[in-house]
């Protein structure tokens, strides 16, 4: 549940690990600051002002007379920053019921004035930009008090919050910058592994980043070299052995040709022919693996080509391609794979249906036929080299049993997967899935 809301990328996650405690700390700090400090400060300031106004009123009551009043108000202006004057005979305006809800400041001031003044009063914190107006009802009129808003307001609060937000933004930017540099080598490694898995060529990448990332990258480089060496060793050996065997085989063939015709000789000749086909298969396989570089191939055109040549050999093929599909492939190898699959279907079935289309991040290719199919428990076995269902080595029903093995090899070399299944046509379905 929580996982869905967490960022997916490493950058996002590491930033969250850095930023979450920071924000949490700030929120807690700000909360405490508001609760304790700002609250207290505001209350003190409000009480100060309320007290001063009360003192002014008390002084005026104690020392009546115009001259006294002038002196008191003068003192207030000079030393308390309170501008006050008496409107003789005036009455407080009625309380405005529609007045906007009190802010915390209004509330506090209201509370403190009520506590100290014990006279009807009105507060107006909205009408002036930088000043607050308080009117107090006295017996002889209304005392209007105007004082700077600053006196009631601790501006450090905003400065504090601004600093907090500003500093965390700067920290966040710096963290993003550094983390991005840390994440980049990992992303490069992932991309290289992905390309290598798809059989594409991987440019040697420089080791960079944190120690662990470097270790992973150098392990990947070593692994890649080893795999490439293994592949080339295997194909070299395969082609070497096939090539070397061809010479003695040719000699045997010549010697057989000189022998008299009899059934035994014919049998041996058939076996030798089989061996020759096998060796051709090996050589073709080895050639296909070696050297061919992946390039952008129009899969649709390639499929039409394969289907076309199969049709010329008499196959009934229904080809359906969803749009043009272009992707990097080893063209010859991939064509051999398709040809192998189509040849199998041609050998065992009447009708063949080939479908190709894009599914999310892969290309899916299915080859269906209406032949006898392969029993479910044999579908993995037939991928093994030389494994054939029909053990009679009958030329009509099969070759040497390499076709599917080679096909799987080629598809895996492209980072894809091939599997066999039941076909809706009644026979076998071969499904190829390639990463796109
Ligand atoms: N479309 C199919 N329908 C029924 N059986 C199949 C089909 N494709 C393959 N098979 C069975 O799987 C076995 C292995 O196929 P594979 O292509 O590997 O070898 P092969 O066709 O016998 O020989 P090769 O392809 O090397 O000439 C075949 O011998 C056949 O019995
Ligand atoms: Mg085959």
Overall description:
The protein is 56% helix and 16% strand. The radius of gyration is 45 Å and the shape is rod-shaped. It is built from 9 helices and 11 strands. Among the domains are: 2-154, Beta-Lactamase (2-Layer Sandwich); 293-435, Heat Shock Protein 90 (2-Layer Sandwich). The longest helix is centred in the first third of the chain and has 53 residues, at 10-62. With 436 residues, it is of the alpha+beta class. Helix 1 runs antiparallel to helix 2 (66-80) and helix 4 (156-197) runs parallel beside helix 5 (211-258). It binds adenosine-5'-triphosphate and magnesium ion.
**DSSP E strands, number:** 11
Overall residue-averaged pLDDT value: 86
Structural class: alpha+beta
Main sheet: strand order? 6-8-9-11-10
Could you tell me how far the N terminus lies from the C terminus, measured between alpha carbons in angstroms?
A: 30 Å
Summarize the biggest pleated sheet. 5 strands, mixed
| Radius of gyration using CA atoms only | 45 Å
Give the cofactors and ligands.
adenosine-5'-triphosphate, magnesium ion
The helical percent reads 55-70%
CATH topology of the domain at 2-154: Beta-Lactamase
CATH superfamily grouping of the domain at 2-154:
Sensor histidine kinase RisS, periplasmic domain
Oligomer: single chain
Overall geometric form: rod-shaped
- CATH class of the domain at 2-154 equals Alpha Beta
Low-confidence stretches are: none
Treating each run of at least 4 consecutive H or I residues as one helix, how many helices?
Answer: 9
The helix/strand series, from N terminus to C terminus, equals HHEHEEEHHHEHEEHEEHEE
The CATH architecture category of the domain at 2-154 equals 2-Layer Sandwich
Please state roughly what percent of the residues sit in beta strands, choosing from under 5%, 5-15%, 15-25%, 25-35%, 35-45% or over 45%.
15-25%
